[in-house]
Amino acid sequence: GNRAAICTDNVTDVSSKDDPSDPSQFVNTVDSFLCQSTIIPGDGRGFRVAISSQSISLADTFLGATVDTVLNGVNAKPDLFPENPKDIPDINFFYRSTQATASCDQGRSSVITVRCNPDESDRGQLSVPSSCPAGTCDGCTFHFLWESASACPRCSEADYHLIEGACRGGVQESLYLWNEPKLCTKGVALPPRSAAPCEVIAVWLKVGLGVGAFVAVLLVSLTFYFWKKNKRLEYKYSRLVMSANKECELPAADSCGLAEGEEAEDDVVYTQKPTLLGKLRAIANKHEDGESSESVQLNSSQANRWPNETHSELLSCLLQVILVVFSHGSRLHLLC
User: Fold this and answer.
1) In this model, does residue 38 exceed pLDDT 80?
2) Interatomic CA distance for residues 235 and 323, integer angstroms
3) How many other CB atoms sit within 10 Å of the CB of residue 112?
4) Which segments constitute the MRH domain (predicted)?
5) What burial class does residue 167 get, using C-beta atoms within 10 Å of its C-beta: 0-12 exposed, 13-18 middle, 19+ buried?
């Protein structure tokens, strides 16, 4: 709320330098946030000092400060100034003067754009748009750019980083440096250089090496174990395959063909059949069970198989057959 800008008209003071009356009654002074005076150089006009006149107020009321470009109908027009190359946004201070004029029926307004520039001093430097040297392009809205280190944020712990040196002689040095580019002022100070005892190999590194060595030994052991087990299984499998091949070998098949001059043998029998005496006994047993008749087929092949039997055996068999016929009253058919 302190209006520090003061503009004074000294035209009457200069023109009445020979007047013995009090010249302060003719002095016009303007106190405001922002004021303007027209300066007339004194050289070549016979005046000892420069003449200031037409002092006017450009900012009677402070509207607010924001990073936005528009506030209460006042436009900051940032394109009138060079683009801000830094990441810190500009802050616009908006002012208004309610004194209406012929060209500005709503009064005058002013915008001061404050920009962070660590290379400038705290007071900084004020500039006007290059396209409008008088500070205004329409006579009603005035624009100013104020670059200053005071517009930068205050420094905090996030604005510097730690650099740890190598461990030498059991001592490790730590150095703090500002982040580049440095875009802060005042605030916290940079911590001093420090030193602390250290070990050539850190504890966590020792633990990591131990765990890594244990895992490596474990993996090698497991690999060797499974390799040995696989070799044993492979040996057992090969033995099993060899034994299976031996059991599955079939004997060589006898040739069914006949050599030259060899005659085929008649009636080759591969199955064992009961003798004639056994068949007759079976017939007798069936007749005892009540059957009326039985038929017995005698193959010539069987007759040929008995060339060595004695006549007595044949006669005994025939007698048994006759006895069976007469005892049961049925017929026995001999099929030859």
Assistant:
1) yes
2) 74
3) 20
4) 1-154
5) middle
